[in-house]
Amino acid sequence: MLARFSFDPFDWLTRPTLRNRPMPDQAPDQANEKQLAAAAAVQELADGMVVGLGSGSTSALAIRAIGAAVKGGLDILGIPTSVASEQLARELGIPLTTLDEHPAVDLTIDGADRFNDSLDLIKGGGGALLREKVVAAASKRFIVITDASKHANPLGGFPVPVEVIPFGVQPVLQRFTDLNLNPVIRQTAAGVPFITDENNLIVDLQIAAVPDPTKLAEQLVTPGVVEHGLFIGLADEVLMGVGGGVQRFTAS
Ligand SMILES: O=C(CO)[C@H](O)[C@H](O)COP(=O)(O)O
Fold this sequence. Notes:
The chain is α/β, with parallel strands linked by helices. It has 7 helices and 15 strands. Helix content is 27%, strand content 23%. The strands form 4 sheets. A 6-stranded mixed β-sheet has the order 2-1-3-6-14-15, sandwiched between helices. Strands 9-10-8-12 form a 4-stranded antiparallel β-sheet. Strand 4 (114-115) and strand 5 form a beta hairpin. The longest helix is centred in the N-terminal third of the chain and has 15 residues, at 28-42. It is globular, with a radius of gyration of 17 Å. Mean pLDDT is 91; it is low at 1-23. Ribulose-5-phosphate binds next to helix 3 and helix 5.
């Protein structure tokens, strides 16, 4: 029988769900950095665009700014990457569409849990990585918005989420344990497994650093895994709020 729990330095992450996740305590600077990055990304929108709407607290700020722009006359269609983002976009009156109607997305704006100088990302802290990756991969341009705490070389300092079908979770846990990846099934505040918008489980790999994201991504491909939170070669730019401004990282 696999041990399901060990010391969890990311305990806050494993408890709440995306839908009811309280914002972890964040310094005013961090909140301001997120706001600056979100506002800068929204400047890139233009009439007629199909826009991927990311998930998480930074994306929510961008969605709010998009909602205000739409009220002011901006003519776009949004494709949300989670149920939570869809609810927020609807509340704000942002017209929505689907990948069935628009399989090519002009621009997606989404947050990240970590990024490195190569613009490899760890995503899925909110459990929305599957839809996020589908939308990012369908996008002509993918802009990531973060505060300064998300920049990490090597990539790491945050668990790598993996979305797994419930039927296959035990063999997947066994494989990841054999690879010394310290897998833990994500739990909600109520102590039951977190269920994604696609009705799967999230297994968080509690590893300190990901010096070779491509190698780890290859190791994660095994039956039962639907997708993982390593976004490699997808981001075109990261807009990182830092201090009172925005630092722009571009893919080389
Ligand atoms: O990948 C994500 C959700 O699945 C989020 O983009 C990521 O967790 C960043 O969230 P926040 O902006 O709240 O820090």
